[in-house]
Amino acid sequence: MSMNEVREALRTRFEADAILGATALPIVPPDAVPRSTGPTGPVRASTTTDPDELRRRLATLQTLDETQVRGCRKCGLADGRTQTVFGQGSVAARIVFVGEAPGFEEDRTGQPFVGRAGELLTAMIERGMGLRRDDVYICNVIKCRPPNNRTPAPDEIAACCPYLFEQLRTIQPEVIVALGAPAAQTLLNTRESIGKLRGRFHDFYPSGSALVGDPVPLMPTFHPAYLLRSPWEKAKAWEDLKLVLTRLELPIPRKT
Ligand code: URA
Ligand code: SF4
Question: Which site in 7, 30, 52, 202 is 20 to 30 Å from 209, CA atoms measured?
Fold first, then answer.
């Protein structure tokens, strides 16, 4: 490693601790981050502003939630849930974050990522990336809480993931961030570990077939619950999120 590489590694590590550290104060208040202009000119806040298209997306997701997901009994997880957790955020989102499955707080409230891992994800989005949680979309591979938060079984993922695919086809994000192995492996149809998948974009095919349609760039990264247990990995997650910002031509917030 050259001196420059060492310096760069330390800087990244410092930034990640400062920006993603659960106890860190906001480095850049979200409002101070330029939201309408980036280094390469105007930055879109959303994939579309056409009101008809946005209404259509909203209606599609509402119908999917109300007529299929809420009463779904396609797998055994239906028995243990308080309620299903469909997803939350903007139907015009440029980025969709996909987690694993609801936990205790999510099952209780019906909203994704509202417990401890959710607090870290929100910090990653707002303090780290300089975006607003409301401007992205957040959902999970699995819509019902597994008992004791165990990892979902392959048959449960197979039963539930058509809902996720429909969400992604409806929102048509420019980038998908897969949080943790179950999300990344499901969306990319691979058994590769998250450690090997993260750090670069992969092609996601919303049709579910690698032969049909235009692929969406997908960035696998560590799940925030894992980052809470392994905080030294935050630097790598921050590298991944910076690649997402760069891909979208969004400014990378810096420590001021
Ligand atoms: N972990 C997840 O994967 N999803 C949630 O919604 C909450 C915690
Ligand atoms: Fe249906 Fe998914 Fe819930 Fe299983 S986890 S019952 S497939 S909504």
Answer: 52
Alpha-carbon distances, residue 54 vs 46, 90, 180, 203, 246 (angstroms): 11, 9, 29, 25, 26
Ligand 1 atom closest to residue 180's alpha carbon, by position in its atom list:
3
The reply to whether ligand 2 has any atom less than 6 angstroms from the CB of 164 is no
Residue 20 domain boundaries: 1-35
CB-ligand 2 contact for 242 (6 Å cutoff): no
The answer, yes or no, to whether any atom of ligand 1 lies below 6 A from the CB of 117, is yes
Q: Is 42 helix (H, G, I), strand (E, B) or coil?
A: strand
Ligand nearest to the CA of 140: 1
Q: Please check whether residues 140 and 243 belong to one and the same domain.
A: yes
Please tell me whether residues 188 and 237 are part of one structural domain.
yes
- Statement to judge: residues 223 and 242 lie in one domain: yes
Is the domain of 93 the same as that of 29? no
Question: Residue 68: how many CB atoms within 10 A of its CB?
Answer: 16
pTM given for the model: 0.86
Ligand nearest to the CA of 226: 1
Whether residue 68 sits in one domain with residue 193: yes
- Any domain includes 69: yes
pLDDT digits 0-9 by tens, 230-246: 999 999 999 999 999 99
The count of structural domains within the chain is 2
Beta-carbon contacts of residue 215 (< 8 Å; ≥ 6 apart): 203, 204, 205
